[in-house]
Amino acid sequence: MKHYLLTRFNLRLWPHNKVGEETRSEAWLRRRVELFERYTLPSVVAQTCQDFVWIILIDRDSPQWFWDKTRHWKEDCKQIKVTSVKGKHSRAFARIFRDVITKDLDGYKGPVISTYLDNDDAIARFYVSDVQTKLSDAKAKTVLTYTHGIQYFTQLKLATSIRFRHNHFISIIENADDMRSVFGYGSHYYIWKCPEISMLYDDSKNMWMEVVHEGNVDNDVWMTFDTSLIKEVHAVDGLYGCRLDWCDDVKGVFIKEWIPRAIRVFGVHVKHKLFGHDWWK
To answer: How far apart are CA 127 and CA 269, in angstroms?
Structure first.
């Protein structure tokens, strides 16, 4: 079995983040590198199973300091395989991932797992191992989704445990000779609608961590009836292999800042549903 983690870093996909800031600026890139090095990279380095390849797509015109960073990443994580992408080909990332994997397989004909991983999120230390175990006996084109994880808010310095059935922390197993990768079936939110896909939902607790920060393109508070505040903050320390900062008054910040934020985000989503995403214009 072959396993690939797939990450898009600074491809030219979205011109602005959720607060209207440019996502192709030097400031954005430096902030994203900081998040990657603080959360994503340590969580992958800490995996209990090291049998995988991590493919990271990078814009070919990235500044030299950024390319220097990627060399340091590969020193920390030997599984990293950086691939440069021309700006005009950014939206062909699914095909590029497929081509890079196919080349790396080098004639291998067995099952292939690919996992979707954003460059500012983290996975539990046993994530890779568990994915391989659960998909080892699954039929081709089975998508594994862990329904439970946490949202960590960098500004508020608190976390909530959430259940998100159609989250982006998904993996697929395919046959090598019919491989499209986890990005080859469209949006993670609607992949379950593909007729050739079989879904495997796993309710294991807190298998992933979505880092919510001011530079997210879209992600923000996700609230359902079973969303809960993580009060015992040290219970998640070390689970993801990265260091989390916590506020002194978790409950107070949750009530005074998180709840009003959740209400505002909910209101925006309602307006989007009723009037479309351009309702403010």
So the answer is: 31
Which residue segments constitute the domains of the chain, with CATH numbers given?
A: 2-248 (3.90.550.10)
Tens digits of per-residue pLDDT, 117-171? 999 999 999 999 999 999 999 999 999 999 999 999 999 999 999 999 999 999 9
Query: How do 148-153 and 158-163 pair as beta strands?
Result: antiparallel
Are 241 and 46 a contacting pair, CB within 8 Å? yes
CA dist., res. 50 & res. 71, Å (int) = 19
Determine the Cα–Cα distance for residues 47 and 33; give it in Å rounded to an integer. 20
- pLDDT of 156-197, one tens digit each? 999 999 999 999 999 999 999 999 999 999 899 899 999 999
Q: Which segments of the chain are extended strands (E)? A: 2-8, 53-59, 80-85, 111-116, 122-123, 142-146, 148-153, 158-163, 170-175, 198-202, 208-212, 228-229
242, amino acid identity: C
